[in-house]
Amino acid sequence: ETVDVNLNYGAKLGDDGGFYNLTLGFNDRQKTSRSQNHNLIIFDQSEFGNFFAYDFSDPNARGIDDQKLAENGLNRDDFNFQVGDAAIRNVQGFLNLEYPFSDKAVFYLSGGISVRDGQGFGFRRLPSETENVVPELFPFGFQPSLLSDISDQSLSTGVRFKLGQWDFDLSNTLGENIFDFTVENSNNASLGANSPTKFDAGGHQFFQNTVNLDARKYYDYILNGLNVAVGSEFRYERYEITAGEEASYINGGAQSFPGFSPLNAVAENRTSVSFYVDLEADITDKFLIGLAGRYEDYSDFGDTFNGKLTARYELTDALALRGAISTGFRAPSLHQQFFNNISTDIVDGELLNTGIFRND
Questions:
Q1: Within a 10 A sphere around the Cβ of 182, how many other Cβ atoms?
Q2: For residue 219, what pLDDT band results from cuts at 50, 70 and 90?
């Protein structure tokens, strides 16, 4: 079941062509389930030498489970896995506006905020998994859930203006993503009956701010027209991983999603400065050539220069031939360099903790 509601309102701002536009949105999508009864052993039958699944156990294993289900007023549906799409609720708002100061300068702003909550599910821990389940807390096992709390903020402001024969654009753009995790209906088996059943598992955060200055001018008297664009950019980035509470990661951690530990914690940043030139010329009415170059200096990866050559030839009014050749370099993102975590996966039929580790 999905509910989707949107509201949009716009109006003029001043009497010289200014405007603003506001959009609000709400979306609620319920979880889906495509699970069925499974053939896994539900209750602990280790005393009979029965483990994991009926297919690999004594023929009486299913009957033993059926008897215990009846004794506790339960049925097999009570032990199905929650398999399907996560439940997600999203609330967001965006504002876009322009306001001319004069016939040569325009202020603009565009920004938004989005808050999204999600609920996903890990593999069900059955009572038979005595190494993963604390019976004093969950005598019939548990279906752990992973809650995500995500917020995104962005804001871009700038001024477009003319200075002589040049068109300029000076802007600042910032954005931030915060992603926090909570594990519910779970336990840290190593803590026994003292384990919490809800854990703050930590999270990660990314922030970026860029300042741009761009300028362009068109020369109609050079060849059949020459467009010149130049610009520069300063960029700051920060990436963080915050540790969860101790019970979420210690000695194996919370079942389904061990929290980020202090060993996972990260606080890294980077700056870069770049300059570019972009030339585009109409050699004839049908033949266009473009040449661009960009120099960028990273605080952690050194500097690089890249270029691009493009061409377009118009064969007919409806058919054109295009081509390009370029070099390229992009420094790995801070996420690629420093993200690391531990999660639960099925390996050779067993639930095991697996990891992603930073590459340094």
A1: 21
A2: very high
